[in-house]
Design brief:
Elements lengths: L11 H10 L6 H12 L4 H21 L6 E4 L3 E4 L4 H16 L2
Antiparallel strand pairs: 1-2
């Protein structure tokens, strides 16, 4: 992948939720106690940071007007939809921007 490219996984918050809620009991009090224990571990800060980053990614995609996935945003202005391969989407963007510059 080209340098300077950030990949935002818009399903990351849901995947984190699923991982954290796995094996929690149905009883809300017991589940809360288990989550409090997990949150007291040194590893929790890393999980909290991943949550924050994943929601920042969602907010950034919303700000950029991303409507569908996969989407590759180029220069914060152009969106290439439907191409999951970032390098291919960047090549497509280069071609389109090159055509735009020749007009």
């Amino acid at each position: 992948m080209p340098s300077g490219v950030a990949v935002l996984e818009l399903d990351a918050p849901g995947r984190l939720d699923a991982r954290l809620s796995r094996d929690l009991p149905a009883d809300p009090d017991m589940a809360e106690a288990i989550m409090r224990e997990r949150m007291a571990t040194p590893e929790w800060q890393e999980t909290a940071d991943r949550y924050a980053d994943s929601y920042l990614g969602l907010a950034r995609a919303w700000q950029l007007g991303v409507e569908n996935v996969p989407a590759v945003v180029v220069d914060g202005r152009y969106v290439i939809y439907g191409e999951p391969d970032v390098a291919a989407a960047l090549n497509q963007a280069d071609r389109l921007l090159g055509q735009e510059g020749r007009r």
